[in-house]
Amino acid sequence: MSNPELEVKLEVGTDVLRRLPGKAALKELTLGKPASRRLRSIYYDTADHRLQKAKASLRLRWDGKAWIQTLKCGTGLKNGLSNPVEIEHPVDRQQLDLTKISDPKIIPWLKDLVSGQTLEPVFETQIDRDTLLLNCDGIGTAELALDNGKVETTGRSQDFSEVELELMSGLPHTLLSISEKIFDGERIDPSTSSKAGRGYALCEPCTSGSDKGPYLPEKPALDPDMTARNAMSAIGRSASQQILGNWGRISISDDPEVPHQLRVGLRRLRTCLNFFKPLAYGPDLKALSHAAQHLGKVVGELRNADVIIDDIVLPAVDQLGRNNKHDALIRYLEENRIEQRNAVRTALASEQWTLLKLNCMLFDQAVERACHGSDQSLQDMKLGTIAGVALRKRWKHVKRKGRGFSKHRIDDRHNMRKSLKTLRYACDYLMPIYSGPEPKVFYKKLRSLQDVFGYLNDVAMADELAAKIAAEFPAGHDLNKSVTHICRWHTIRARLELRKAGRRWRHLKSSPKFWH
């Protein structure tokens, strides 16, 4: 029989594996005594790895008592969350027996996939596993597996330490609640690869390199008839994937787009939580929003360092011409950027973000927990019904921030820019549920106005840089001279951009609002 399983897979250090069994939070949740086993698993595939390409795995596992044959379909890991279909049967000996598979849908699929090719061992794992059964406040039970092991193939091997938490019974948010209790204060990372994935990576080392570019998530698939709860899950899940995807890349990439996309994901998540606040916004989601805001400020220091160099200094120097003074400023800023990048990498590796990571990994469960026991009629409201109300609210906020635009100071423009950004993210999510040309026309005008505001905000950062350098270096220093010339060039340009912003703001106000 085909059984879907829901489990969380986390990469942890061996120190965490040693520490977890002694934690009071874990002991309070544990039912019965832990079980320890040594597992040997042999993974099979065709010579051209057809099972892997079909996101499936086939193994024989010796659990100390018997051989178990397991076929998993849909084995990909997404941000540490696994939800494959699993078909498991005991076999008499260390040999595959595909006749044990009785699922009428799986049999022809597997036969066509293998197409007469021989299934041979491709790699194996040796794992020391401690297993505990956990009960969480009567809402459900889960099995915790602490794995310390090794994956081996011909001529290669790799050690790993991993934690798996699998839902056994009860509500899905059992996994989130248990994870928060036992991993709080511990450094964890979402597993990026299953044990099968680790083995295939060893078999094909040349194709297993990490992507150092930014992670761009798929847009959530929304329609006006879906429920508010399902829409919240889809939107927040997309933002969470963007957060975790770029979080994992900052440590290996110097690409400025990576921290930028991480911050965008954090803002998109907060926009989602704010948008659906009438539906679900208890203390847990409120804490999630605050954590996302805090992390955004941390990563913002690196983003600012990138913007100063790439969007302020270099464009001005290209127009003014390179000289020794400008080169000295660029070197100074590059050194600062390296310091900021290292500081952000250190900060992101901290255990203080564990609860944020877990809620992003299990965002569907976070929504389920927040909605549990709440008004079902709110959860079942159609997205098309609430979208217009929410967009009108965001537009009203933008108009309030835009009053007296011609007399705005820097802080006023900054606050208006943030309000525009929130509206933009909401429009980006919700445009697909509206028909006609109006959504794209409005969004284009909104984005063009926000782009001007972004530049004006960058110029304000340049003035802050000038003040910082003036405080550190004497008036005649090359750095002071360089930044003064650059700020002067941007000040002239900013006057033109400010007039452009006024025109674009008037155009946006007069544009038809597609949610009416």
UniProtKB/TrEMBL annotation:
Record protein name field: CHAD domain-containing protein
Residue ranges occupied by any CHAD domain in the UniProt entry: 225-516
A matching Pfam family: CYTH
Source organism (scientific name): Hoeflea prorocentri
Gene3D superfamilies attached to this UniProt entry: CHAD domain, Hypothetical Protein Pfu-838710-001
Domain called CYTH: residue spans: 3-206
Listed SMART domains: CHAD, CYTH
PROSITE patterns in the record: CHAD, CYTH
GO molecular function: inorganic triphosphate phosphatase activity; metal ion binding
